[in-house]
Amino acid sequence: FFTTVAFAQSVEIGYPPNGASVPAGQDLTVQVVRPDTLTGSQEVAVVIGLASCTSQSCLPPNAVMGNILYNGPYNPQFQQPNLPPRPPYQNFSVAIPASWTKGAAQLNVAHFTLIGLGPFPFSETLS
After folding, report:
1. What InterPro entries does the record tag this protein with (predicted)?
2. What are the angstrom distances between the C-alpha of 51 and each of 34, 38, 41, 102?
């Protein structure tokens, strides 16, 4: 039961798309989407990191988050009612460090939430 409930609380990266190119020193909008669910939950936080993959293949985010671009509250909201329906999300404006090495990189997200009446803690990482 807990696996099904936890899966319903999972988030995804809505933006930027995979393969996007962002120059060093520029701001980037990262959209973290949480599909709508009937299970009660209390969002706690997300951490957004950027890991360089230029000298080796990218490690999974549960091994290395990389350079932390954001670490703080997560409060996904629905869009305004006159727009096409979408699941709740929150946009984060993060700065790519000016010293960032050009080449392949991986955007990583760690998500923390409390689920249900208990509540029980749930965490996940994704890229």
Report:
1. Nis1
2. 23, 34, 29, 12
